[in-house]
Specification:
The structure is a single chain. The chain is α/β, with parallel strands linked by helices. The protein folds into two domains: about 110 residues, Aspartate Aminotransferase, domain 1; about 220 residues, Aspartate Aminotransferase, domain 2. Helix content is about 40%, strand content about 15%. The chain is built from twelve helices and 13 strands. α7 links the parallel β5 and β6. α3 runs parallel beside α9, α4 crosses α8 and α6 packs parallel to α7. The radius of gyration is 22 Å and the shape is globular.
Amino acid sequence: MQTRSACEEFELNKIPLTRRDLGVLEGYHSPQLDVPVRLNTNESPFPLPDTFTQEFQSEIKNFDLNRYPNRSANELCTSIADKELLRGSEVFVANGSNEVIQSICLAFGGNDRSALIFEPTYAMHSQIAKITGTRVIEGSRNAEFQVDENAALDAIKKDRPEIVFLCSPNNPTGNIETPELIDGILTELNSTGGLLVIDEAYKEFSENASELIVSDESNVAFIRTFSKVWSLAGIRLGYLLAPEWCINMIKTVSLPYHLDSVKQRVGILALKHEDEMRRKVDEIKKERKKVFDALVSLPLKVWPSEANFLLFKPELIDAYKLWEELLEEGILIRDCSSWEGLGGCLRVTIGSKSENDTFLNAVRKILK
């Protein structure tokens, strides 16, 4: 029998300890399986326009990749600001909306600070808050996934959170937050000094999204992304629209040269193709209605959605069994059945016409 020497034991024990609070966290995981139809991560089913690809290939040949990127990403911020009718100083760009969320938590959260969320909602709001040492206060939603305004205001008055996250349309439920709720929370936070962060990753798919705008006098910020509408999930590009004082605070916690040159150019070029992107959004909205109408005719509970996905709950079959059988048919959707407040629920991304037809045919076959 071999035994370790004292030296070996010493070397084995020289492992740094992680923070104790990280031990209770689980990483954010979404299955990436090689199947013909992937409808689990809310990506756009459409490729980028050929004209975009041609422009990008032409420009990338001239990149000085031996040089650091523009630290402030000024040109991209200006392009986004022009689209949003804002100033470039009211835009912050980052590696996906998740880095935006992280930067917000680093700037306004942290030790002895808190963030209020309303479950079920986008998991990364609470995940990133906890990673940055920000205490998470969990509010809840009713059976139709709406936030009770009075309960929300009571939580703000009691806990005085530095950050309140709202996702509208909400992921994974698809509903928007009401103007009355947003106005009530914002009024309370303008008094307490907290920041309202509205995650609008799916705003373009909504017919009734909030029309709030950035104002130096209002404690509200908006998260947007290029992943969905702009067919750029693979490039990881997101941005924040916020008052200049908020953007300046965010910049103090961002890493130098954090947004590479290629990503900056991709965002600038994509914005030139807004008309085509809008046409694709209209196609997805039409397909969303088709899929919704088909699902409600089956033994399923289906929630209306203003995003590019639908949440539904099987009534005659276990949710995980339906998920498994769809996977056997080569179709991957999102299993939400173990998430807080979503027992027995599944979520399907609205894909291309052929992908949606394949999904619906498989669901009909399985439920028979």
